[in-house]
């Protein structure tokens, strides 16, 4: 287990290559994107401290045709892919949690695909900003309009217009490549139903209201800071479920790991 600082645009997975490591963001936010033959790029899914980067390892496929890189720099914990693969094949409490996380991820991909096809750009922009806001500890984060236009698959001028609408309404403030969420409630009202659908599904499957209790979207400025660890890692590299005496062979899935325990 290794704690790492991920810089913005750090590539975590290249299309088609075997995944060598699995990442669990703490304060970093990662994006999975698809790149077309003409070089245009569009977001597939966002992963923050509610999930993991590396679901192909759990599924036993080891690779995927999409690229994953860091959208917002910050801290993450990483483990070698073979360790994750072995642990997820051993049964126990870990595999169901990984399965729930994967279902939540697939639900986000499906809903975002429908959103990109059916909803106006200002609503899509609000959804994207809310999902990024859920995954960072504060109310402002680094974001350029050029980058946002690439992720939403539209021209920069289109994003400029959408961001201006949200800024004039007082929902956001934008200056020098940084976005501040000024009115969270208003921004949620400006978003389409896709944000609420995605968030509800995460809370049902892996959030504070789900059986796993492993992570969630909490109210307040640090939306996920109160998540309760499910697994801890002993100094011998064994995984111990919280409240259990029997060691499990991997890591805790809250979307973020805890420091090794002594003993």
Descriptive report:
This protein is of the alpha+beta class and 263 residues long. It contains eight helices and 13 strands. The strands form four sheets. It has a four-stranded antiparallel β-sheet with strand order 2-6-4-5. Helix 3 packs antiparallel against helix 8 and helix 4 packs across helix 7. The two termini are 16 Å apart. The C terminus is likely disordered.
Structure summary, number of beta strands: 13
User: Tell me about the biggest sheet?
Assistant: 4 strands, antiparallel
Q: What's the gyration radius in Å?
A: 18 Å
- The sequence of SSEs as H and E is EEEEEHEEHHHEHHEEHHEEE
Shape: globular
The residue-averaged pLDDT reads: 79
Distance between the termini: 16 Å
Which band does the percent of strand residues land in?
Answer: 15-25%
- Widest sheet, order of strands: 2-6-4-5
Structural class: alpha+beta
Give me the number of helical elements: 8
Oligomer: single chain
The proportion of residues forming helix, as a percent range, comes to 25-40%
Instruction: Pick out the low-confidence regions.
Output: 208-263
Which features characterize this protein?
263 residues, alpha+beta, four-stranded antiparallel sheet, three-stranded antiparallel sheet, 8 helices, 13 strands, globular
In short:
The protein is an alpha+beta fold and 263 residues long. 35% of the residues lie in helices and 22% in strands.
Write the layout of secondary structure elements.
Elements: E1 2-6, E2 11-13, E3 21-25, E4 29-35, E5 41-47, H1 55-59, E6 67-72, E7 74-80, H2 81-88, H3 94-118, H4 121-134, E8 140-142, H5 145-152, H6 156-168, E9 172-175, E10 178-181, H7 184-190, H8 193-205, E11 231-233, E12 239-241, E13 247-248
Antiparallel strand pairs: 1-7, 2-6, 3-7, 4-5, 4-6, 8-10, 9-10, 11-12, 12-13
Helix pairs in contact: 3-8, 4-6, 4-7, 5-6
């Amino acid at each position: 287990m290794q704690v790492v600082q991920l810089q913005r645009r750090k590539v975590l997975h290249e299309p088609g290559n075997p995944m060598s490591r699995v990442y669990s963001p703490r304060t970093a936010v990662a994006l999975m994107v698809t790149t077309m033959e003409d070089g245009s790029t569009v977001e597939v899914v966002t992963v923050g401290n509610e999930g993991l980067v590396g679901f192909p390892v759990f599924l036993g496929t080891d690779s995927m045709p999409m690229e994953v890189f860091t959208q917002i720099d910050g801290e993450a914990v990483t483990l070698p892919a073979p360790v994750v693969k072995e642990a997820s094949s051993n049964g126990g409490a870990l595999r169901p949690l990984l399965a729930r996380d994967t279902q939540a991820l697939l639900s986000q991909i499906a809903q975002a695909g429908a959103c990109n096809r059916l909803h106006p750009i200002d609503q899509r922009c609000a959804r994207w900003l809310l999902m990024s806001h859920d995954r960072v500890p504060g109310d402002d984060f680094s974001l350029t309009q050029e980058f946002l236009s690439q992720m939403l698959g539209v021209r920069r001028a289109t994003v400029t217009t959408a961001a201006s609408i949200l800024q004039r309404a007082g929902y956001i403030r934008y200056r020098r490549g940084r976005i501040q969420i000024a009115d969270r409630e208003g921004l949620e009202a400006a978003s389409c139903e896709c944000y609420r659908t995605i968030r509800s599904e995460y809370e049902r499957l892996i959030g504070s209201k789900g059986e796993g209790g492993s992570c969630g979207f909490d109210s307040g400025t640090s939306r996920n800071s109160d998540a309760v660890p499910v697994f801890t890692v002993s100094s011998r590299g064994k995984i111990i479920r919280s409240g259990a005496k029997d060691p499990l062979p991997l890591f805790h899935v809250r979307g973020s790991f805890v420091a090794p325990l002594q003993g």
